Amino acid sequence: MAGLTVAVAGLDVVSPVIIPAGPGGFGTELRERYDLTALGAFTAKTITPHARIGNPPPRLVDTGFGLINSIGLQNPGIVAFLDTVYPTLLPFPTHLFLSIAGETVNEFEDMARTLAGVEGFDLLELNLSCPNVEASCGVIGANPQAVHDVVVAVRRAFPDRPVAAKLPFEVPDVAGVVRACEQAGVDVLALFNCPHAARFDVATGKPFLARVTGGFSGPALKPLTLAKILAVRSLTHLPIIGMGGAWTADDVLEFRCAGADLVGMGLHTLQDPAEVCTIAHEFATGSS
Amino acid sequence: MTDVVVRQMSFSTDRSLLLLTVDWRAAARPGQFAMLKVGDWPVVPRPFSICAQDREAGTTSFLIRRRGLLWDQLLRLQPGATVQIKGPLGNGFPELPAPLLVGGGCGVAPLLFVAATRPVAGFYAGVASAAEQAFLAPLLPAGTVVTVKPQFVTDAFLASRSAGPVFACGPSSMLRVLANRYRGGPIWVSLEERMACGEGLCKGCPVRRREGSVALVCSDGPVFPEGEVSWTWQD
């Protein structure tokens, strides 16, 4: 395997393999326990304006070739995150991306303005698509006008570093949303958040998850994600972080065939972050 | 995850329980668990309490109930096969001498490990069937009080009027009964929850603390002082 260093939105990325927002938590534990230097980037779990305790358990159900999660953006809120968590991350051993979600344009804008004054991270991801919250951030990403309004406001408040938009898997007007991202000044597309999914216990007839549906991830999702990335690739030259089903080094190459520049490995991070770092290292050094 | 070789497998006669022994030397404390997986499917590993360790033989054992997608994979295994493991994980029970042990079902697994490491003041085990009772009998220390459904292990334990610190593991309904009715000393409960990473990353295994915060069963537990645990989830 040849070494594969990628330039994305002005960042030199040592490997196309990244950890997307969610499965790696905020990065505190990962940074202590694993050598992350060969990762292209790490995205910290999404933070919100106020603390969220997340969804009641059960939050997870297995599907065999994947996992349905219903975490619900559990996080301490941006103020506590910056006071207590963020200082433990610095300096981060690879590119550090932060992810934010708000319920309104103003919430996104306020968080972006706060983070514009915070050094030590390289890219701001807008989570426009969490499948596990009832508030509007779950649907912003499906609405071109809403995406446009959020991104314009964030760009105004956060002008100096790249911004990524994480879109929902289920978007009726993909072309419209991608165009809105381009026109409003998005630098990178993060494709995609987990699609909605459910499982039921046949013994009881009841859903496994306390909130019935959750977001689906894992190898079973890969061919669906690839088709969607391919469709977006034909619409835009924006860099794409592909995520949703990448498990092996070959999967990373397959995502790149479909048009992704960087590839997120979420579920594999849950099994063992060391294995994801090893795959990232293979790309970074050309060894296999 | 690390590849480990299956040394021994034994099933209860009704094939509801499996005692799986693997060549794995990682030093674990009683109450800790490991994530286990068999090959590529199911992709998400499962958490199991460590039931026993034989330092000389270099083996570790897990007590596994028939449940979920992993079971069919386990049935296909033979000694000599390879499984994947990550751990030991979690905090384990405190280093208290002579605790009372109360376990329900596979909840006896971490308590067996406790009983192998120190003298205990009593062991109460609740099982689902006579087949399970027969299967577990050789593993339980002499003097263990065993109840079989529809008897409740909590009834047997509370009727004994024992006093002292308790380590308990089992269904949450059992743990709640203990928490509500036992007044003889402090209780530590080992909680069970669905997990994916087992190490505090994914926030998939929450438990509500009485003061309102959210702890994670995998990395803050699985063992908690009973007084810290809120048995209901309120927003």
Provide a descriptive summary of the structure in words.
The complex is a heterodimer of chains A (288) and B (235). Chain A is of the alpha/beta class and 288 residues long. Chain A contains 10 helices and 16 strands. Chain A has an 8-stranded parallel barrel with strand order 3-4-7-8-9-10-15-16, surrounded by 5 helices. In chain A, strands 5-6-14-11 form a 4-stranded antiparallel beta sheet, with no helix packed on it. In chain A, strands 1-2 form a two-stranded antiparallel ribbon. The longest helix of chain A has 14 residues. The model of chain A has no long low-confidence stretch (mean pLDDT 94). Chain B folds into 2 domains: 88 residues, Translation factors (Elongation Factor Tu (Ef-tu), domain 3); 129 residues. Helix content of chain B is 17%, strand content 33%. The chains are: A alpha/beta (288), B alpha/beta (235). Chains A and B meet through helix 1, strand 5 and helix 9 of A and strand 12 of B.
H-E string of chain A = EEEHEEEHEHEHHEHEEEEEHEHEHH
Q: Of all protein chain pairs, which has the greatest interface, and how many residues does each chain bring to it?
A: A-B, 36 and 32 residues
The average pLDDT score of chain A comes to 94
**Structural class from helices and strands of chain B?**
alpha/beta
Oligomer: heterodimer
Number of strands of chain B: 14
Radius of gyration of chain A, CA atoms, in whole angstroms: 18 Å
> Strand percentage of chain A, roughly?
15-25%
Average predicted local confidence, pLDDT of chain B: 96
End-to-end Cα distance of chain B, whole Å, is 36 Å
Helix-strand sequence of chain B = EEEEEHEEHEHEHEHEEEE
Q: Give the CA-based shape of chain B.
A: globular
Walk across the major sheet of chain A and give the strand order. Answer: 3-4-7-8-9-10-15-16
Mind describing the biggest β-sheet of chain A? 8 strands, parallel, barrel
- What is the helical fraction of chain B, as a range of percent? 10-25%
